[in-house]
Amino acid sequence: MIYPLAFHSSMHLAGVAVGTVMSLGSAPIASGLLERVIERRRLSGWWMLAAALGIAGSAVLSVAKMQNAPSEALPTVAGIFLGLIAGATYALYSWSAHRLMNSGIGRAPAMGAIFGLGGIALMPILLLTGAPLIASTQAMMVGLYMALNPMFLGYLLIGYGLTQVAPSAATTLTLAEPAVATLLSVVIVGERLPAIGWGGLAGICASLLILSLAPATQERTSEPQVQAIFR
Description:
It is a single chain. This protein is an all-alpha fold. The chain has helices at 2-14, 16-38, 45-64, 73-102, 107-129, 137-162, 167-173, 176-189, 195-213, and strands spanning 42-43, 217-218. The longest helix is centred in the middle third of the chain and has 30 residues, at 73-102. Mean pLDDT is 77; it is low at 219-231.
């Protein structure tokens, strides 16, 4: 319930670029800390490198698109704070879903329960603020598209991904979202991306490549042992 409210409020206050980067960029750090503190997994050096490259690339990409971001300091700071809350709750959701699936619950009922209960909790907010959603056919169609494509289909795919990789890797992989959105804006909308923006995209691509080839976490050990940073 908290994640979508914080995420979209962050974009509303700080702008789409800053809100997206803060929400998605902070999620891998929160997810890694959850695994480290609760499961006592040692995050591999490869994951740390991938997370650093992905977050830096997203930040550079955000700077490249900051011309449309709001200039007011207070809303921007509030948006950044809400983005951090969104990142923490997204990491907690991913970790919890992963634990449910590991305990024997199928990904469909696990995801359905999480989002079903979250949707019920959000219904009062919809009743209080959702009048513009039915004010026009265009608004209704956009809402229907958002519900079916990025929410229903997207999170079913995330559920499948959580059965295959650790939550820390899954949340880091979501750093592809601002990169894909930027590429779509260039190819379809015709926007131009400065050289620094392409550098940010390169950092995100390097992050995803490292994650696909290297382990995200090291297994827990019962006794101290010397391990290489990169294994």
